[in-house]
């Protein structure tokens, strides 16, 4: 069947014909038509990969996305032959492959359709550029929603949208701008309570259409390469997220300081200014761990150099800042200045490490330094060389690297022309195939170098562009946003969307990169960003001289900004625990409401509320002068953070939004570990107590606390603590049990347990069987405070 005819650019569309034979090799199945082959690989009972060779020959099975730690665990799978179709089954899935056109129908064991092909696999010749455009199309099921796809600045539900992946420097992007910086070809579908995911692992330009082009049809295609996708069944969306992240890999733990507050600007210059900023933070006692240096720290924008005028003694400056608890992160771009006197240019030229055009000329383009050439990071040898270049920076004391412009961005041209050649790990390709992994591999090489030279400490890398799987080595920020209330919402959407696309460690430029926020917008942005894994202010106000620091908006806002940055530091043990869960199980740190309560229809199209970790629910204050915000709470009981009032979920509520509060709720029953007020992460060691806020519930609720040294890799050899809490209270008595696993020796000695919301009048408490009387000092503002030894196992209050 052919539905189109050929145009000058494209041939007619081709479709598979009848399956003539099949074979099985271990957990791989092959189905042959006259000219094409379908490979089906059973990875686990819920993950199946489909690969389709339209010309009867598979390409190299190679991926920059898939983690080499991906393990197959196929059990109880097999094939049954029916007249119309083949059926592949596992314990959780049945995949029917139609004999006459290879269309797939995927059901659960009860035969309920999860996903069904419309046309299924098809392709057309790309007459204009060569190769094939490979397609897959699927039927949209009744009520189906779509989520995922990385950083797209649009409603969380992607139904009726078309999305494109071709990494782009989208300066000042707006709602619905597409493509953007990141390339994450992964989406979720959800209907009738069944959630699944499709990861189309193809690095060419990819397009996903969720019923926009043709009603009732979702399709995705790439302008080359193979139709190669992973189907992941939940049915829980959170399980799909974890499985996707296990396929594309989870990160190691970052240094704890990278979860502190970070301050950035284009640019702090010269060194004196950097020191002034640092001093302001300490003087005003606003917590901060990191200062970023943007491009002006370099000599004429030459990567790996320092401006002789602005930063004559970088090591000395870094040391001075380190003594006050600051870490320095420096920007490194891919563009290498064409300058015969410049060492990096010399090395790269001699060793032939720079990208070339199809005709053999160097790929030259203008960026900040003027005319530049660009390393071919798709060449493993180049990655090795690049990694080695970070040695000196680390020796000077630099603790983290910020990779920018790696879409790649080039002035005037926008990006590289499509004819540029790339090594692609030994299988040379054009830029059409390598574009979407250029920044991905740049940050990979950067992280490899930083990790090596910082050993035994942990590296921190932040990058702008990437492909699926970059969470294994890098964090990211959402790029050049704008100081507007719209962008506050976009920041929230983008970080939620990235989190469910495998990339939790992300944040936006607080206050907006372009433009000037007023005090109110900046404050509301700080409040939101407390709950973004990466919390960094950045701005581009070089020319106007506008300042964008927490203390730049007058004393009233300074106090409020400080309050919320302090809240961030208080919550660090909770945030770090959430990071550990992400790092270990792939669990997204941020969870849109639909991922928290997918059985509740009312959550499915909401985009403002989200959970950070297992116990905190937040939304941002979305308008200037807003006095109250309406939000939806998922089922259960929720404490409003600022006054402990309890709300019942599964309904809309309205909450007042004075400037010194924000809609922040704690799940009843939870334990939220807190640090004391500290100025920077290392200071946590000074406290003898770790605070545990416990929110009363008469349901059984579990929580956890993960802790380790916060830097270095001791945790990989068992030097960590995994602490589990279980609250088993009832109407007359409160009970908290603790289980402790691990061998890390934390600095604090005691827990300061603060119990919120006790429904009865307490008179005594019992710690591991010993009874004490509660006295006045134990009560404060409706909270019962009890100090117990760190190794307590049970605390009862009656
Ligand atoms: O062409 O390094 O997104 O964060 O401050 C602009 C200067 C280059 C873009 C980044 C931004 C950074 C800026 N960069």
UniProtKB/TrEMBL annotation:
InterPro entries assigned to the protein according to its UniProt record, in alphabetical order: DUF5110, Gal_mutarotase_sf_dom, GH, Glyco_hydro_31_AS, Glyco_hydro_31_C, Glyco_hydro_31_N_dom, Glyco_hydro_31_TIM, Glyco_hydro_b
Name assigned to this protein: DUF4968 domain-containing protein
Organism: Chitinophaga oryziterrae
Family the UniProt entry places it in: Belongs to the glycosyl hydrolase 31 family.
The Glycoside hydrolase family 31 TIM barrel domain, residue ranges: 251-577
Domain Glycosyl hydrolase family 31 C-terminal positions: 586-672
Organism lineage string: Bacteria, Pseudomonadati, Bacteroidota, Chitinophagia, Chitinophagales
Pfam families per the UniProt record, alphabetical: DUF5110, Gal_mutarotas_2, Glyco_hydro_31_2nd, Glyco_hydro_31_3rd
Xref: CDD domains: GH31_glucosidase_II_MalA (cd06604), GH31_N (cd14752)
Keywords for the protein's UniProt record, in alphabetical order: Glycosidase, Hydrolase
Keyword Nuclease: no
């Amino acid at each position: 069947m052919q539905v189109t005819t050929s145009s000058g650019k494209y041939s007619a569309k081709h479709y598979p014909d009848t399956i003539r034979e099949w074979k099985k090799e271990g957990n791989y199945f092959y189905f042959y038509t006259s000219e094409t082959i379908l490979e089906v690989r059973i990875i686990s009972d819920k993950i199946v990969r489909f690969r389709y060779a339209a010309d009867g020959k598979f390409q190299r099975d190679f991926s920059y996305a898939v983690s080499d730690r991906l393990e197959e665990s196929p059990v109880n799978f097999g094939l049954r032959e029916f007249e119309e179709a083949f059926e592949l089954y596992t314990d959780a899935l049945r995949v029917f492959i139609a004999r006459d056109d290879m269309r797939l129908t995927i059901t659960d064991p009860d035969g309920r359709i999860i996903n069904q092909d419309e046309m299924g696999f098809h392709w057309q010749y790309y007459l204009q550029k060569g190769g094939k455009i490979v397609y897959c199309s699927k039927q949209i099921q009744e009520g189906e929603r779509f989520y995922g796809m990385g950083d797209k600045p649009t409603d969380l539900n992607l139904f009726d949208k078309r999305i494109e992946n071709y990494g782009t420097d989208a300066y000042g992007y707006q709602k619905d701008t597409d493509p953007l910086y990141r390339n994450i070809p992964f989406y979720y579908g959800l209907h009738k309570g069944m959630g699944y995911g499709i990861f189309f692992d193809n690095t060419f330009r990819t397009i996903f259409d969720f019923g926009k082009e043709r009603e009732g049809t979702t399709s995705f295609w790439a302008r080359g390469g193979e139709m190669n996708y992973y189907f992941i069944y939940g049915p829980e969306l959170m399980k799909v997220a974890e499985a996707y992240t296990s396929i594309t890999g989870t990160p190691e733990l970052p240094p704890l300081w990278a979860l502190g507050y970070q301050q950035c600007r284009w640019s702090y210059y010269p060194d004196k200014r950097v020191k002034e900023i640092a001093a302001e933070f300490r003087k005003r006692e606003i917590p901060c761990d990191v200062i970023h240096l943007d491009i002006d720290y370099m000599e004429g924008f030459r990567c790996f150099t320092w401006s002789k005028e602005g930063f004559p003694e970088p090591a000395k400056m870094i040391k001075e800042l380190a003594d006050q608890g600051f870490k320095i992160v420096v920007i490194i771009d891919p563009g290498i200045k064409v300058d015969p006197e410049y060492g990096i240019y010399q090395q790269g030229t001699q060793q032939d490490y720079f990208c070339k055009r199809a005709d053999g000329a160097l790929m030259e383009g203008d960026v900040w330094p003027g005319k530049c050439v660009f390393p071919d990071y798709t060449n493993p040898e180049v990655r090795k060389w690049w990694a080695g270049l970070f040695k000196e920076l680390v020796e000077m004391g630099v603790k983290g690297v910020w990779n920018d412009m790696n879409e790649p961005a080039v002035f005037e041209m926008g990006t590289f022309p499509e004819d540029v050649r790339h090594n692609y790990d030994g299988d040379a390709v054009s830029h059409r195939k390598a574009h979407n992994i250029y920044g991905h591999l740049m940050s990979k090489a950067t992280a490899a170098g930083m990790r090596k030279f910082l050993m035994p400490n942990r590296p921190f890398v932040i990058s702008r562009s990437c492909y699926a799987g970059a969470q294994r080595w890098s964090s990211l920020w959402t790029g050049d946003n704008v100081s507007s209330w719209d962008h506050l919402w976009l920041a929230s959407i983008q970080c939620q969307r990235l989190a469910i696309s495998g990339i939790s460690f992300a944040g936006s430029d607080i206050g907006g990169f372009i433009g000037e926020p007023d005090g109110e917008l900046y404050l509301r942005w700080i409040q939101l960003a407390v709950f973004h894994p990466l919390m960094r202010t950045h701005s581009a106000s070089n020319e106007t001289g506008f300042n964008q620091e927490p203390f730049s908006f007058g004393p009233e806002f300074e106090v409020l900004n400080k309050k919320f940055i302090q809240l961030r530091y208080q919550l660090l043990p909770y945030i770090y625990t959430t990071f550990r869960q992400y790092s270990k199980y792939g669990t997204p740190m941020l969870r849109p409401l639909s991922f928290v309560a997918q059985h509740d229809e009312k959550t499915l199209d909401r985009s403002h509320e989200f959970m950070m970790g297992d116990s905190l629910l937040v939304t941002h204050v979305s308008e200037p002068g807003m006095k109250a915000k309406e939000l939806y709470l998922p089922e259960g009981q929720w404490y409003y953070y600022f006054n402990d009032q309890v709300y019942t979920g599964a309904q809309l509520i309205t909450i007042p939004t004075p400037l010194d509060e924000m809609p922040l709720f704690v799940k009843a029953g939870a334990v939220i570990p807190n640090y004391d007020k500290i100025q920077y992460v290392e200071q946590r060691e000074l406290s003898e107590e770790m605070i545990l806020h416990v929110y009363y519930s008469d349901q059984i609720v579990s929580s956890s606390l993960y802790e380790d040294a916060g830097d270095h890799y001791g945790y990989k050899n068992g030097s960590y603590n995994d602490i589990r809490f279980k609250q088993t209270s009832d109407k007359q008595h409160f009970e908290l049990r603790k289980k402790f696993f691990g061998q890390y020796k934390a600095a604090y000695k005691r827990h300061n347990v603060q119990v919120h919301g006790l429904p009865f009048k307490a008179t005594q408490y019992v710690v591991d069987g010993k009874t004490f009387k509660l006295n006045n000092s134990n009560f404060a503002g409706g909270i019962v405070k009890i100090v117990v030894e760190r190794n307590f196992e049970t605390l009862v209050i009656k």
